[in-house]
UniProtKB/TrEMBL annotation:
Biological processes per GO annotation: amino acid activation for nonribosomal peptide biosynthetic process; secondary metabolite biosynthetic process
The species this protein was found in: Kutzneria albida DSM 43870
Phylogenetic classification of the source organism: Bacteria, Bacillati, Actinomycetota, Actinomycetes, Pseudonocardiales
SUPFAM superfamilies with a match to the protein in the record: ACP-like (SSF47336)
Residues forming coiled coils: none
Name of the protein described by the UniProt record: Carrier domain-containing protein
A Pfam family annotated for this UniProt entry: PP-binding
Transmembrane segments: none
PROSITE patterns: CARRIER
């Protein structure tokens, strides 16, 4: 997985209070305790960094792999 995915995994692990290696690329993040409040907090932190992602976009496929791809696309355009 890319460096961006590993950074995302570390961010999610900190937010969810789990070890980064416990989150697989294709694990549903809801299985690790991700809820809508935490998704909104992530969106806000990314917006502050100039990355535009929507709640609907993220909950459609809540995995590290999907979110890393969405973040990479947001960084490019």
């Amino acid at each position: 997985m890319s460096e961006g995915a590993e950074e995302l995994r570390r961010q999610l692990a900190e937010l969810l209070e789990v070890e980064p290696q416990s989150i697989g690329d294709d694990d549903p993040l809801t299985d690790h305790g991700l809820d809508s409040i935490r998704v909104m907090a992530l969106i806000e932190s990314w917006h502050e960094r100039g990355l535009s992602l929507s709640f609907a976009q993220l909950v459609e496929e809540p995995t590290v792999a999907a979110w890393a791809a969405a973040l990479a696309a947001a960084k490019q355009g």
